[in-house]
Design brief:
This protein is α+β, with helices and mostly antiparallel strands. Helix content is about 50%, strand content about 20%. It contains three helices and six strands; from the N terminus they run H-H-E-E-H-E-E-E-E. A hairpin with a 5-residue loop joins strand 4 and strand 5.
Length: about 140
């Protein structure tokens, strides 16, 4: 009977040690989980801040101000720009913002092309800079 009591006491001590070990691991894993949740919250906050910052940097007014101040760019005057559109019946030259309609023919293409340089663009952007596109060209030069 004494052997049985010693054996049962040893099993009881081993079970108690296993329980303590399991509780310790459980608490350690819970602390790691809470740390990971806190880090996730920090990263989500930072991600939101970066998205706001990206939207702010992508504003047209900021881009326009940097283009004018740092790159010394300026918009081409609308009276100095012509839009050359490609149609089935041949290329047509039209004023971008002048009196003739956008699709109205104004002059022959060779005369306008010899007046200045031709850059690929379909229309002017919001600040007067040409936007790239196929099928149209902006002709700049003196009139």
């Amino acid at each position: 009977m004494a052997r049985l009591n010693i054996l049962l006491t040893a099993v009881l001590v081993l079970c108690a040690l296993a329980l303590v070990n399991a509780q310790h691991r459980s608490r350690s894993l819970f602390i790691d989980l809470e740390t990971a949740r806190a880090r996730t919250a920090q990263l989500e906050t930072r991600w939101s801040e970066l998205q706001v910052e990206q939207r702010q940097f992508a504003r047209n007014s900021l881009i326009d101000a940097k283009a004018r101040s740092e790159l010394a760019m300026r918009a081409v005057a609308p009276e100095r720009m012509l839009l050359l559109t490609m149609r089935a019946d041949g290329p047509q030259l039209a004023e971008v913002s002048g009196t003739p309609a956008r699709g109205a023919a104004k002059a022959s293409v060779p005369a306008a092309a010899s007046a200045g340089s031709i850059r690929s663009a379909s229309a002017l952007g919001t600040r007067g800079f040409p936007a790239a596109s196929a099928g149209a060209a902006v002709v700049r030069g003196t009139r």
